[in-house]
């Protein structure tokens, strides 16, 4: 299954479960009887299923909507949710399922609408916040996974847009921002396809990570970087028309233990620290001087559970700042 579709189906399943539980709570609050619980679960299933599907498979892909400010975006989505809720409330599916007379159901229409709208607003707010900070970061904050720092083995991929300094002079401040935004949006699709996690955007760089078990499968970090380059090649004409230049990327990959934890007070964040992050960043600097524009440490490629998807060139041991004995690296072969 396409990873993007699989991701959306996972989120949809979670939303439906929340909707059903919320409907059962309403049914319990009304009478607590079996038919009332069934009616509430029916409403919850339909409302959550339809709103979740519209959000994930329609609204999420509307670029014009995603470019609006947070408040306006939230208002537009809420209006669409409200229209769906009104239609479902008027059709009275819960009463039809349990065989109650339909005409009496309108007496509590507005109270039911208010409750459904409130739950939908919370779900909508959750989607919006997750879109701002990242779905996995959002879930990690909610579950408190990194409230106390932990050590994890991670693949870390640094991807840098080549020549961005010169492009900034040529395109201007606003132009380079639009260029980077368009590029990062395209690159992120490959991250989703290969089940990575965007850790951060830093200037003209994007940092992607995988836990050891996820990244080792089918050499996902290497495949992700190659997919990024293919995506940029496919979009070359569009970039050429809009900006007069096609983005080129360089990258580096490293693996090892990182410390992951929440940090800060007014602006809470989940940060990654450790020598792995520093080494990956320095490898990215060195990648600018090698053919193929990509360096991977031997420590990272040794962890893959399958052979690399394309030939890798053994570049031996390179000197690197902060490591007396240097680091063994490989580069992308000519056939990549």
Question: What is the secondary structure topology, with strand pairs?
Answer:
Layout lengths: L2 H28 L3 H24 L5 H4 L3 H22 L1 H6 L10 H25 L1 H9 L6 E12 L2 H30 L3 E6 L2 E7 H4 L4 H15 L1 H8 L5 E15 L5 E5 L1 H12 L7 E4 H4 L10 E9 L2 E10 L4
Parallel strand pairs: 4-6
Antiparallel strand pairs: 1-3, 1-4, 2-3, 4-5, 6-8, 7-8
Helix pairs in contact: 1-2, 2-4, 4-6, 6-7, 8-10
Can you tell me about this structure?
The chain has 336 residues and is an alpha+beta fold. The protein folds into 2 domains: 3-133, no CATH class; 147-332, Nucleotide cyclase, GGDEF domain (Alpha-Beta Plaits, 2-Layer Sandwich). It has 13 helices and 8 strands. It has helices at 3-30, 34-57, 63-66, 70-91, 93-98, 109-133, 135-143, 164-193, 212-215, 220-234, 236-243, 275-286, 298-301, and strands at residues 150-161, 197-202, 205-211, 249-263, 269-273, 294-297, 312-320, 323-332. Strands 1, 2, 3, 4, 5, 6, 7 and 8 form an 8-stranded mixed β-sheet that branches. β4 (249-263) and β5 (269-273) form a beta hairpin. The chain starts with a helix and ends with a strand. The chain crosses the membrane at residues 12-31, 37-58, 70-92, 112-133.
